[in-house]
Design a protein that fits this description.
There is one protein chain. By secondary structure, the protein is mainly alpha-helical. Helix content is 63%, strand content 0%. It is built from 2 helices and no strands. Helix 1 packs across helix 2.
Length: 60
C-alpha cells in the first residue's frame, strides 16, 4: 500500500494519473447527472411569444 501512495503522490506520473483520473470521474458524474435531470425535467417544446425572455422578463 505504501508503494501505491508513494507512486501516486511523489512522482510526476502518479500526479498525472490522479489529475486525469479526477477529470474522467468528474465528466462521468456530470454525464450521469445530466441524464437523470433530462429524465426528470422533460422538454416542453418551443417557447411561445410573450413568455419570460430571461433575467429581466422582457423589460429591456
Amino acid at each position: 500500500m505504501q508503494e501505491i501512495f508513494s507512486f501516486l503522490f511523489e512522482t510526476r506520473t502518479g500526479l498525472a494519473v490522479l489529475f486525469f483520473g479526477g477529470i474522467v470521474i468528474a465528466a462521468l458524474a456530470a454525464f450521469v447527472l445530466e441524464k437523470r435531470t433530462n429524465k426528470m425535467y422533460v422538454d416542453r417544446g418551443p417557447k411561445k411569444d410573450g413568455e419570460d425572455d430571461g433575467l429581466f422578463g422582457g423589460l429591456l
